[in-house]
Amino acid sequence: MNDRKKKRDGVLRKAFGSDNAVLSYKKDIKKQITPFKRTYILASLVL
Q1: SS3 at position 15
Q2: pLDDT by position in tens, the chain (length 47)
Q3: pLDDT at 1
Q4: Model pLDDT, residue 27
Q5: Please, are residues 25 and 12 in contact by the beta-carbon 8 Å criterion?
Q6: Superkingdom of the source (predicted)?
């Protein structure tokens, strides 16, 4: 898993160019995904 994370981070750094842009991108994506993760957790508890 760590190897996949390193590969993904490398691709993101190449695409965005700077570490600040990568961190900003990751923060925005995490903020957008959080509601879906909560819903998934609640749904998995029901099933």
Answers
A1: helix
A2: 678 888 887 888 888 887 788 888 889 999 999 999 989 998 998 87
A3: 65
A4: 92
A5: yes
A6: Bacteria
CA–CA gap between residue 43 and residue 10 (Å, rounded): 34
The rounded distance, in Å, linking the Cα atoms of 6 and 38 is 26
**CA 39 to centroid of chain Cα atoms:** 17
CB-based contact 29:23 (threshold 8 Å): no
Token pair 């965005």 in the structure block, residue: 16
The owner of tokens 């600040």 is 20
**Cα 13 from chain centre:** 14
